[in-house]
Automatic annotation (TrEMBL):
Pfam families per the UniProt record, alphabetical: AzlD
UniProt KW keywords: Membrane, Transmembrane, Transmembrane helix
Organism from which the protein derives: Rhizopus oryzae
Protein name: AzlD domain-containing protein
InterPro entries (UniProt xref): Brnchd-chn_aa_trnsp_AzlD
Record has Transmembrane helix as a keyword: yes
Transmembrane segments: 48-78
Length: 83
């Protein structure tokens, strides 16, 4: 970032760098939605259900704010129902 356009990058590297933000976000979100316990494998959590609902809301509305609100309401509701 410091050198910006002073260091030329090959087109293949530039194309690959377009996917870096999506890869970083995936690496942060997926382990939180699908926790893994040693010896047990993936463990079901309410975050996964809330995440799937949030994805469906995004695909329908394309509203980032609505995704956050619906995802949190679903997660809080499921935690409240589980008691």
């Amino acid at each position: 970032m410091l050198f910006g356009d002073y260091i030329p990058l090959p087109d293949g590297v530039r194309r690959a760098l377009r996917y870096a933000p999506a890869a970083a976000l995936t690496a942060i979100v997926v382990p939180d939605l699908l926790p893994w316990k040693a010896g047990l494998g993936p463990v079901f959590d309410y975050k996964l259900v809330a995440g799937v609902v949030a994805i469906l809301v995004f695909l329908r509305t394309r509203s980032a704010v609505l995704v956050i609100v619906v995802g949190m309401v679903v997660w809080w509701g499921l935690r409240w129902l589980a008691g």
